[in-house]
Amino acid sequence: MNDETLETVRSVYCGEGEFAIVSNDENCTVFTVKLSACGAENITVSATFSVSPRDWSVLFQDAQFNRRSLTRLKNAFSAWRSAEHTVWDAFNWITENAASFLDRRDVVCRRPDVQDFAVLVQLDHVRDAKKYAKALQSICDSAGLTARLLFKPQGGPLLVGRARHQEGVKEFLKALKTRNVDVDSKGMPCKERLSSILFQGPVEDAEGLSIKDVFGVIYCRTLAEVHSEFSTLGLGSLYSKYVTPEQ
């Protein structure tokens, strides 16, 4: 696995305990990733991937699945997988299908959502603001993210957003690292390489909030205006904890 792909995986699965590198050399990269199972509350799948230049394999190991459930999951995954499938395809398949292989006694049915998931990203710089904003809007629309691109009086821009499900945040982070969103010093399309994820995780739901626009680009003249935009999204606590005048 090349360094760029590995760094993208690390960026997307950057929550506590979500990702760990077991070993990494030119012949093989081994890492463990914890994936949420759609349709079941608090159910995750721990999968250890071994990725070589020509192939990859996965080992499922999770105490949340009993032996029969885990065997069914392994067999279904093996039947699905083909030579064309990538590690990202595997992540998606596991996330979307794992819950269906749980025995009923293992499953805690998902209750109506009482939390949203939020993400806060520090961008290093933006060369072509119009192109960047257009790309971000497309990514946010696809991921179901309500977000703001905030240009501040000093420091790099911030992207703050919220989604109804964790999968939306993961989809956004993956696209941010794998799609061309800006231009480089020569004017050529380029990916976002220097962003820092300040926060991703659950937040209180948006019930009662009146959010007019799904996506917006805001040029803030003061930090008070930055704070106001966070508050509009119901994320004022993230501003207080993660945003400093120097950022």
From TrEMBL:
Q: Where in the cell is it found?
A: Cytoplasm
Transcription in keyword set: no
Q: For this chain's UniProt record, which GO biological process terms are given?
A: positive regulation of hypoxia-inducible factor-1alpha signaling pathway; positive regulation of protein sumoylation
List residues traversing the bilayer: none
Q: Which organism is it from?
A: Ornithodoros erraticus
The keyword Electron transport is annotated on this UniProt entry: no
**Keywords of the record:** Cytoplasm
Give the top-rank taxon of the lineage listed in the UniProt record for this protein: Eukaryota
This chain belongs to which protein, by name?
Uncharacterized protein
> Which GO CC terms are listed, alphabetically?
cytoplasm
- Which InterPro entries does its entry note? RWDD3 (IPR038840)
